Batch of 4 targets.
Target 1
Amino acid sequence: MKLSMFNVWNDDDPLIIYNAKTGALATFEPPYRAPVLAALTNHNPSLLPQEFVEILTEDGYLVGKETDELAYIQGLVEARQKLTAEYYFSILLSLACNFDCFYCFEDHTGKILDAAVAQRLIAMMERIAPTAKKIAIDWYGGEPLLSFPRLQQLNDRFMALCAANGTHYEISITTNGYLLTQEVIDYLKGVPITHLQITLDGPPDTHDQSRPLKNGGPTFAMILDHIENAVRNGLGIFIRVNITRHNIDRIYELYRILAARGLKNKVRLLLKPVVSSPVRPCEDDCLMGVDLSSRMVPIYVQAAKDGWIVFPHVNSMQCMGFCVADFPSQFIIDPSGAVYKCGECFSEAETVGSLADDGEIVLNQEAYQPWVKKTPLDYPECRACQILPICMGGCNMKRWWHKTDCCEELKHNLPDFLRAMVLNQDNMSQARS
């Protein structure tokens, strides 16, 4: 037997071990901590207490001497590349927005998805629904709720087409939340929606500074009221928090505000770094790599200490790709019918195709293939990464366009990541009991 290359551990007491391939998570206290830590640090399984060998093997911490764990990663890549009957679309209903966020990567031209492009989308759905196993739509913008009637029209048609063909259909909405009225909520309660993603950039003052209305007015209070009402009406909410150098030290205040409003563990927070773009350069505001991780991951630890569920279950963290853009049947379609692969790459040079009048997605294979053919095994740093099964090569947008650290931020602060995961598992167990 040999120790798995995907074991991650800390040097604290208790010793925490996580296997990124199987999702196994274990803690060891004295007197077992020292021999287990010695086995890990010396890559010598013979130092393990014999009574643990069977269970450590079952959980994937120990593997056969001839086991090629990178072959498992290649198998995931190949399985992902075959998922051509599962479609994931982000449809930009407009390039208009009622907010003026300083870091937005979109050029808000005000273009609206018109009737002609809507008909092309319907034709596309008529082509793929008969053979698709799954179709997932994220209604996106600009601000998609500025075009709510168009959203209703297309969504109702898509639902009917999928129902007629026995195709699984689900939606989500990425919205700033300001226009999430009761009328919108009442409609969404009757459709197969998984969640809404709404952004709050920390407490009211930091949020209102980075995400004001076009006229400069505040937005936090209105959005929080709408989130609370949406949760009360049974809708799932992901709250994205865009991290900058200006708000990183204030982020935890948002957890306290949400808890005070009765939203603890009724919403999920996603902490994400702001990325500079040619449309609105903001490099001086961005945190990346070790600097970001050293300040972001402790926020998760503190939240987990306070009873928040901050991660999925450890067995749900493994993936086939870093993000949905790695999948072959994922496309972003803008109001003109241009097709992209990444939600932060919207220049003309970054298109991968276009939507034809008959609904065919006409791809530029030279631009499209690098996204779906990428394998993390092409990169030496990925081949040696302990958390490769939960990262799968990192962010293509950062790797190819920004030439910056493209790794999962958690990689740069594994001790705090492990502490947060142990606390998180306890919180999930308590929530189930």
Target 2
Amino acid sequence: MTVAVTGAAGHAGANLVRALLAQGRPVRALVHIDRKPLEGLGVEVIKGDIRDLESLVNAFKGAEVVYHLAAHISISKDEWPLLEAVNVIGTRNVVKACLRCKVRRLVHFSSIHSMTQGPADIPLDESSPLVDSRHSPPYDRSKAAAEKEVLRGVEKGLNAVIISPTAIIGPYDYRPSHFGEALLRMASGRLPALVNGGFDWVDVRDVINGAMRAEELAPSGAKYMLSGHWVSLPEVARGVERISGVPAAGFVSPLWLARVGAPFMTTLDRLAGRRPLYTSASLQALDSNHNISHQKASRELGYRPRPFRETLIDTIRWFEENGKLTP
């Protein structure tokens, strides 16, 4: 039976589509604008927009399973209207379309950012509360609100499961993602300064495997944290240096100093036509909980994240092989 995928042309979507095809499953890919990551693949491509309920109903007709990956990812503090429209109302539309089309199973991709990160000395897991403070970054609030839309659908009879990955990295990162852009700048000597913070990074292929296992095994309404390994940015940069031979940035800023300079760096990046990487929201993420537990996913889904170094090597090599980075 057909599997429909929203956000099929995104980083996780491009990996998911390939994994589904490898299982011999027919895939219907819902795309908004960009189709390049799907070129040459034997998938049914449908143009649509998750903000348009009827386009979703058209995409989901006859589908047995829906994977909902489409979202607007933001490290800005001033994009709430777009985040609400895409991440919250868009997810509400996905739930409505699944119910209307009698989809057997919805797998919703949430984010670690949907959850309250503190206190820092307590491991973050599926029981941690969702973000509810208006002082939280808009992206975090939007992903928390999207989860609530899915759970409302479960109350109405929708068979749905939620997966919450940490910071995703890995191959098939065409656009690239925010962290993919940071890796490219590191590997080409274009990131002059680092921040003394870090995050839990997870391989996109492990996330996809966990999501597909959740589709197969998880009870309706279940949620799974799909984490990897906490690694600081200076450690990441040293790893990139060992792989690429390009020296890591020599200056490592303490987080307090980076926060002071974030508005100026964001403005400079935008004036230079670059995507801002060090924003107040991204710096807040780099100072988040170090201990993200995937014990539930390991126990119930057989989830096992691969070593971070393997992910880093494969990601850099993919960028080289696809013309985004000079070997």
Target 3
Amino acid sequence: MGQIRKRGGFYQIRYYRNGQRIEESTGKTRYDEARDLLRDREGDISKGVPITAKSTRLTFDDAVKDVINDYTINGKKSKDAVERRSKLHLTPVFGGRTLASITTADVRAFAAKRLDAKAAPAEINRELAILRRAFRLASEADKYHGRIPKIRLLQERNVRTGFVDDVMIDAILEHLPKALQPVVRFAYVTGWRVQSEILPIEWRNVDRKTGEVRLDPGTTKNQAGRVFPFTDTIRTLIDGLWAENEVLKKAGTIYPFVFHRNGRRIKNLRKSWEDACTAAGYPGKLLHDLRRSAVRNMERAGLSRSVAMQLTGHKTEAVYRRYAITSEADLREGVHRLNSIGSDAKRGIAG
């Protein structure tokens, strides 16, 4: 027979498996919640779910360390984001608690609290994914044999809407520092991610003879390599940057990166971008709008979807379709074509 008793501020449950007594802190301050957890444990035992005293003592803090170690071992660039989200949002709620004490209701309460704090569903989902990963890694490593709560992700309304066109780009570039202009122009043509894919490009990734820019496998978000043949715009950009590189060489500076600011690495241009957009009369535009705009331009130029996806690095059509944005100008152009067809038909009838 299981037992419930209060120790300090939390209830503790005691139950038996194959004659072995197991004591577990529930992390609960309410008797009915501790009773429900005890019933869950007794139900798992009756179903043959392996439960040991060690597995019930695994804490969230230890489990999330395994998640961070997993990201480190696999070289995932989002490790810093995992650490930040865990520290700021997950640990204040689940820190110090055992995994066994975390229930589906607790997870729902966490998500509701984050929504009340005006957190975006996408951000909450990234946090829930960390929690889910903690349970799965612990289970795979035989550190945890208890029940895994149902962790349902929130619906994300993430249809992409922002874009820029040729007129906007020209106006924004006028207000950008000269060193940043090639970065923005390159992003507008290729649709590559500015921070993680464009700024790290080195001259070894550029083949001026064949006219290609390459990203090495493992350096992109989906880990796949990528090739973008030169357009006229890109060739002009690369030629200009190569001339700057030659000047640096003659001055005794060997610099590997294609994009730079007076021979120094460009680490971030978000603030400069925001200021330029505001000065050009387009406040609120995002750097990521350049990626969306490149996809839209490829669609309008008639590139096949498979080719466009290879150029921009979209792995699934579902994600790519969110970027194929239709602007009001596109709609007007479409209606104009319909109007022309209607006029031609009328002329045919009249004739």
Target 4
Amino acid sequence: MKNYYLKIKEIAKKFPNSSGVYFFLDKNKKPIYIGRAGSLKKRIASYFRTKDPRIGEMVQFAKGLKFEKTKTLLEAIILEANLIKKYWPKYNVMEKDDKSFDYLVITKEKYPKVLTVRGRELQKYGAGKSKIFGPYQSYRLLRIALGLVRRIFPFGKCALGQGKPCFDHQIGLCPGICVGAISQKEYKRNIDNIALFFGGQKKRLLKILKKQNPEKIGALEHINDVSLLQGSDGVLGAHGEGVYGRIEGYDISHLSGKDPVGAMVVFEGGDRNPDQYRLFKIKNLKEGKNYSDTDMLKEVLERRLKHREWALPGIVFVDGGLNQVKAAKEILRKSNLFIPVIGLAKTGGHSASAYMADKLIIANTKRSNKDLLIASKKIFQAVRNEAHRVAIGFNRRQGKKL
């Protein structure tokens, strides 16, 4: 037993520092445990330091170890689920049953629903009524994974033909079944693509996208998110690139330089969280000094970052162009924070066509993540509009008090 332990420990040293799935094997090379990691090397190394008796038993019992790399952690999470379904490894299901896992369900109807379902509720979706994917060991990661995929292949949660656009449609998550903006055929195409991705058929999906929507290939290849990485395997840092973590949006408002204020709005999981909004009266105004909107933005960010009790954002969004983005980067750098900064600049006034021409300015992020951020333009427009609304409302209330 000791020789096998030393053998797999040596194998572990050769694991790559990349995302993927790992397998602990029995003497017949059958999986006894399947896991996923953002860093295979760091995750496997942790197994030889643990004091958890259950994990220690598994490592001692194992006779082999192998891995399969993936391009992203999201792909690793999906691959892990499909492999657990195929093998039902002993240490994945020990002390668990079907009711303890979580599943992705796609219903079979005119406009299919995409649902996350607890194992105990799964029976009502069986018997050919739905497509079922899983089991997933983490409900949180399944929800975030689905949220990421929804940015590329939107689907609705609203009532069919309800007559007015739902909030998800306004930020690009719903293709508009609520207002009849998408045909049944087009909607089914999105759902079929989701089924292919969660079914582990990425190669087939890419082949289809090459013909149908080649612009989605880049976003799909680089899909990743800080909120997915956090807590996924205990080895990656808390800050990085992403769209579905905590987005903080900032805007400055004043009436011809009078009563200037700043607003911070927060989006989490792609939706507004008004409980986290914060308002700032600009303090550092001096007679005769030209205190620009950029200076005011810096003040607001400096004051915000002093609140260490507030959760740090995954993305800082500023209403404006390159100057505002540079200002935000400077304040973050002074606080030793490397967080993606997104700006949205108007390039053609306020018409509908100009709205389409809004330009994203992206900083503090890897080039490989820019495709996903660009594909998420609608959510940043929603953050911009919300920050603007809150800032103007606060500014007007301040003016009435005088």
